[in-house]
Amino acid sequence: MIGCNTREMDFGSVVGQDLIKDSLRDAVQRHRLPHALLFLGKTGHGTLAGALALARYIMCENRSATDACGNCSNCHKSAKLIHPDIHFTYPTLGAKMTSLDFIVQWRQFVLENTYREVQDWFAFNNAENKQGNITALECARVLKNLSLKTFEGNFKIHITWMAEYLAKQANRLLKIIEEPPQNTFFIIIAENQDRILNTIISRCQLVSFPPINDEELIRALQDGMDSLDQQWATQVGFLSSGDMAKALTLVKAPEQVQAGQWLTWMRLVYKGSGIEMKEWADAFAKMDKESQKGFIQYGLFFLREMTLSKLNPSHQVRLLEKEKAALIKLQQLIDLASIQEVIDLVEGLIFHLERNANARILMLDASIQMHYLLRNNIHHVADIKSLSK
């Protein structure tokens, strides 16, 4: 499995991001690593994987120019997330909880796969409608831990995952981030810079993780999954838009995210049969969450490629030939404004699904809305029927 402990949490387990890895290694080797780093980007771009690899590299007793040795005591403990001088903070459930209360779950979650999203973490803990947060008690725990001497080695590292959930509690950590104890490093991970206090950002060196290159992502999928069909790996690489978390979701449910499923839904909602739309909603509700998300992610990718193609006829559409032919037919029948309305509708689906809304009601409502959007723009039923041929 990609991103799990079979690759020992080293830089080799971080997909792509070569410039970032080179820069971090060089900073460690030259003893020039800033004491506070803000890794900004989606988890699927490798922020958490990169933080774990950097922590292990710092702690390694026999690091090489390219990676941690993987054999020393520090490497073994880092790989199992049990090193006493590597501390973690992450969103938890409950107003009086700290990360320590969820440490067993955290280790299991991360060791299974470092490329997972925060909603996956909440689902892993059966959050249902509970609100995740990083509490004042957690901030107090951080201050206490970092005031102590190191247990092993010469360094202390604190990794904060999804720092957006700190909110105003981040003020409690300002002083120690600005003036940390000797040989202490902060690695703060976030997806949305706008939700991080400027006073935190100003105290960190920003490291932006861009989307993973298509070719590197596809190669990582094939290397990590021996039975993965090359054509399907290529399709997933295109659909995931450089996000390994999305890619791993798509790989789990290929039958739900093929263009045929998406285009079948579009033909069905165009027709507008209440019975058929209800049957579709019932079938959608029976899919597991990963399959539902995969179907929607495919739809969003398809619509965005359609938008780019409509804006720029020379755009190289990142779809396989059959899907590309369907896109070309459809984009002739719907204008840009309506494509954006469809995108907004589909994005709303995944937003509410991640918050455990009723999948059957969501899909039925979306089908009805999509029917009116398509009916207002598409006038050739025969063309709709031919989309998947």
Average pLDDT metric: 84
CATH architecture of the largest domain: 3-Layer(aba) Sandwich
Strands, count:
7
DSSP helix count?
Answer: 19
Radius of gyration: 23 Å
The ordered H/E elements are HEHHEEHHEHEHEHEHHHHHHHHHHH
- What order do the strands of the largest sheet run in, or round the barrel if closed? 2-5-6-1-7
Count of distinct structural domains:
2
Helix percentage: 40-55%
For the record, the CATH class of the largest domain is: Alpha Beta
Low-confidence stretches: 3-7, 378-389
Question: Per DSSP, what share of the residues sits in E-state strands of 2 or more residues?
Answer: 5-15%
What structural class is derived from the secondary structure elements? alpha/beta
The CATH topology name of the largest domain reads Rossmann fold
Shape: globular
CATH superfamily of the largest domain: P-loop containing nucleotide triphosphate hydrolases
Structure description:
It is a single chain. Strand 5, helix 7 (174-178) and strand 6 form a beta-alpha-beta unit. The strands form two sheets. A five-stranded parallel β-sheet has the order 2-5-6-1-7, sandwiched between helices. It has a two-stranded antiparallel ribbon with strand order 3-4. It folds into two domains: 5-208, P-loop containing nucleotide triphosphate hydrolases (Rossmann fold, 3-Layer(aba) Sandwich), CATH 3.40.50.300; 253-385, Up-down Bundle (Zinc Finger, Delta Prime, domain 3). Helix content is 52%, strand content 7%. Helix 1 runs parallel beside helix 2 (47-59), helix 10 (230-239) crosses helix 11 (244-252) and helix 14 (274-286) crosses helix 18. With 389 residues, the chain is α/β, with parallel strands linked by helices. The model is unreliable at 3-7 and 378-389 (pLDDT under 50). The relative contact order is 0.10. It is built from 19 helices and seven strands.
